[in-house]
Amino acid sequence: METITSYIKSRPDTSRAEKGFERAELLSILDGVGAFTVFVPTDAAFDALPRELHEGIEEDEDVCDDIFMYHVIQGSYTLEDFKGYIAPGQDEVRVPTAQGEDVVIRSFNDTLSVNGMSITEPDIDCSNGTVHIVEGVLRPPSLLPRSAEAGTPRFEVMSSEKGVRFRLRLSSGEVVAVSKGYVSRSECLNDIETIRHELLKAEVIEVDENEEG
Prior knowledge:
Elements: H1 4-10, H2 15-23, E1 36-41, H3 43-47, H4 51-59, H5 61-69, E2 72-74, H6 79-85, E3 92-96, E4 102-108, E5 111-114, E6 117-126, E7 129-134, E8 154-160, E9 163-169, E10 175-178, H7 185-200
Parallel strand pairs: 1-7
Antiparallel strand pairs: 1-2, 3-4, 4-5, 5-6, 6-7, 8-9, 9-10
């Protein structure tokens, strides 16, 4: 049976994760004695990241280390193991990572997600632990935009059986924007990140309505 590192290297769609784990000096660790649980995003998950976060991973060693260590848990856990840690009457459990912050394993309709990301290929058994392929790149809370405080605009992320969408609510309570439709959670969060960065660059210009149309 192959190690976690060998498994990641063997897949044609996890080369970006392989590169990141290597830069974070985790490949040799994940090739050794375990046990570990590793959430591995596909190349498509990295392609969907906002440009600023992608550049941060590529150019900032600390960001790279934080991101990839956040995908590693000490000990080998299957989805059934995680379900067993969710207390009666609760729908989630927090699990500490090698980076120091927790991931949130949540159950919805008996399906588990990690930080809202779907686990597309669970319970891949390796000689030194377990791999779960996930649909998106997990971000430590310390690398996420600060939560909106009272009196500030906020993006509200809404989940249903159809998928995930968002709305933008001003401090007055008025909703001024709603996403077009339901998408995956990772796509929704990436859309929000893109809008946040674009708004920072927005200009104020004068437009004569009589000259439009």
